[in-house]
Amino acid sequence: MSRFAIIVEFELLEGAFDIFHREVMRNGEASKREEPGCQRFDILVPNKEENRITLYEVYDDEGAFQAHLESHHFKEFSDRVSGLVTDRKLTRFCVSNDG
Description:
With 99 residues, the chain is α+β, with helices and mostly antiparallel strands. The chain contains 3 helices and 4 strands; from the N terminus they run E-H-E-E-H-H-E. It has a 4-stranded antiparallel beta sheet with strand order 2-3-1-4. Helix 1 runs antiparallel to helix 3. The longest helix is centred in the first third of the chain and has 18 residues, at 17-34.
């Protein structure tokens, strides 16, 4: 079975970057610390774009990603940032170079 990855692109309200960045850093740290199926949680900040953050996450499998979505820290993160996001695009991937 191959690993499961996602890329999530967030467009943020003007002036919301600092708060969102702090919250997504907290969520990423908790994901890596508390979720054995979370292999990678990268927070990507595009150069010279203050209203955008992209996440690259890798999980053991899609079930581990579903467990992430049900975690307490993810639900808290979602609640805290819900008013800061103007658009979100999530793309799911199968990691094809496994094994």
